[in-house]
Write a structure and sequence with these properties.
heterodimer; A: about 110 residues; four-stranded antiparallel beta sheet; 9 strands; B: about 110 residues; mainly beta; globular
């Protein structure tokens, strides 16, 4: 699986959009970009994933650059409950493969 | 989605003893994984639990220290053997299957070794 690079920490004001970047410059054509988050003392929670098109669900939006070497997770209206560590992961197949976690970004939402 | 029940949620154990952690999922899944999360660190994969055969361990993890069972497609156990304070971590069970697009995680077992 390709390696990812994320900033170690970010702050965002409550109610504003939180934009979390991820670099994955060695991503292969068949690798997906996944985002998970881990709220303190809980198991990781799936947020969203994509291959090359931008994706949106009820939690977030995922913007993948045209060359697929980087992506941005967007939380449109951050709340205090979004304070967590966010992990960007790239993996080959959808479904039954193990995940390799990097160090992630610790996002703190400021009241 | 898959719902995972992991037991115990936390425990405090004496050094030299062993603890077995259980992971039960509410549907049959192909893949079950065990991760360790040391204090302040990211998740590290310990092994893949294989149904009906020996688990597949990642580099740095051995069967004698972390024996794993997978008797069927909904259940697995991880044992942390001969514990030392360095084994104090959160241990997490994860499941995946081709019928899902994402992996699911249990809430973890917070282990403290004294």
């Amino acid at each position: 699986d390709a390696k990812t690079t994320q900033p170690p920490s970010m702050d965002c004001a409550e109610g504003r959009a939180a934009n979390l970047p991820c670099n994955h410059s060695t991503i292969s054509g068949n690798e997906y970009v996944y985002w998970y988050r881990q709220i303190h003392s809980q198991g990781p929670q799936y947020i969203i994933h994509g291959l090359k098109n931008n994706e949106t669900n009820e939690m977030a939006s995922l913007i993948i650059t045209e060359d697929r070497k980087s992506s941005t997770l967007i939380l449109p209206h951050a709340t205090l409950r979004d304070t967590a560590v966010y992990y960007c992961i790239v993996r080959v197949s959808v479904g039954n493969e193990k995940l390799t976690f990097g160090t992630g970004t610790r996002l703190t939402i400021i009241p | 989605s898959a719902v995972i029940s992991q037991k115990p949620s936390r425990d405090i154990c004496q050094r030299g003893t062993s603890l077995t952690i259980q992971c039960q999922v509410d549907s049959q899944v192909t893949m079950m994984f065990w991760y360790r999360q040391q204090p302040g660190q990211s998740l590290t994969l310990i092994a893949t639990a294989n149904q009906g055969s020996e688990a597949t361990y990642e580099s740095g993890f051995v069967i004698d220290k972390f024996p794993i069972s997978r008797p069927n497609l909904t259940f697995s156990t991880l044992t942390v053997s001969n514990m030392s304070p360095e084994d104090s971590s959160i241990y997490l069970c994860s499941v995946a299957d081709s019928k899902y697009t994402e992996a699911f995680f249990g809430q973890g077992t917070r282990l403290t070794v004294v």
